């Protein structure tokens, strides 16, 4: 069951450390990056709106891609948590180690644990592929930004719509925004894990029992006084 001691211990041991990603310096780094992106977009629009529109479109496209990857990883995390049997088996083995030794069933439980661990490994490898795609896209984003903004900037200068000075200021502003994206995107996997872990922990905390809420219904007043009525004692001789 979902509320078995082994699963609860596993969730508390693994989910609580994952939430640290949103309460330490990593979150501060992401906030700095978002502020820098907004400032760079404003500066680019001031000097060269053509370059700014293109750069903003690329940033929004990257944001949509990251949101899609985050949703995919979040679904895989939830599925992995539901199918996590390795932690439960390990806790039960530790709690009942003497019984297992007396029954000479060590090999059987070892095989069960190995099978569950291999399932977790396959799930982690699938998530690793998605995280690798995200990392490769975000860390090369600056070069895509450089390519497209310089292409548009050269066209703008050639047609005489903006001076070369203003155009290059807009390009540099969007380049700095791309650098901010690269610096903050490296924390993407930790934030997805933190979101899933926080959701699972709050689900455990606020889960209502199927048998009903203990705080609802009649609560008769119970007193600790004891009263004996019509009680006779017999003492055999």
TrEMBL record:
Q: Which GO terms describe its molecular function?
A: ABC-type transporter activity; ATP binding
Name the residues that span the membrane. Answer: 30-47, 53-73, 132-158, 170-188
As for membrane topology, the entry says:
Multi-pass membrane protein
- Which Pfam families is this protein grouped with? ABC_membrane (PF00664)
Which compartments is it annotated to reside in?
Membrane
Q: Which InterPro entries match?
A: ABC1_TM_dom, ABC1_TM_sf, Type_1_exporter
Q: What is its main location?
A: membrane
Q: Which PROSITE patterns match?
A: ABC_TM1F
Stretches assigned to the ABC transmembrane type-1 domain: 1-193
Does the entry feature the keyword Transmembrane helix, yes or no? Answer: yes
Keyword annotations for this protein, in alphabetical order, are: Membrane, Transmembrane, Transmembrane helix
Q: Which Gene Ontology cellular component terms are annotated?
A: membrane
Listed name of the protein: PGP-14
């Amino acid at each position: 069951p979902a509320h078995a001691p082994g699963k609860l211990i596993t969730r508390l041991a693994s989910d609580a450390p994952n939430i640290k990603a949103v309460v330490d310096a990593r979150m501060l780094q992401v906030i700095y990056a978002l502020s820098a992106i907004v400032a760079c977009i404003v500066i680019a629009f001031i000097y060269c709106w053509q370059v700014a529109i293109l750069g903003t479109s690329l940033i929004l496209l990257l944001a949509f891609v990251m949101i899609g990857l985050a949703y995919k990883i979040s679904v895989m995390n939830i599925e992995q948590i539901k199918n996590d049997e390795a932690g439960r088996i390990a806790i039960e083995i530790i709690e009942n180690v003497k019984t297992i030794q007396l029954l000479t069933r060590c090999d059987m439980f070892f095989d069960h644990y190995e099978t569950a661990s291999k399932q977790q490994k396959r799930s982690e490898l699938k998530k690793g592929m998605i995280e690798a795609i995200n990392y490769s896209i975000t860390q090369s984003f600056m070069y895509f930004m450089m390519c497209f903004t310089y292409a548009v900037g050269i066209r703008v200068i050639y047609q005489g719509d903006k001076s070369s000075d203003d155009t290059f200021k807009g390009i540099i502003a969007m380049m700095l925004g791309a650098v901010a994206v690269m610096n903050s995107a490296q924390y993407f996997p930790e934030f997805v894990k933190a979101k899933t872990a926080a959701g699972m922990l709050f689900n455990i905390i606020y889960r209502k029992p199927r048998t009903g809420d203990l705080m609802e219904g009649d609560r008769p007043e119970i007193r600790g006084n004891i009263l004996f009525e019509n009680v006779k004692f017999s003492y055999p001789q």
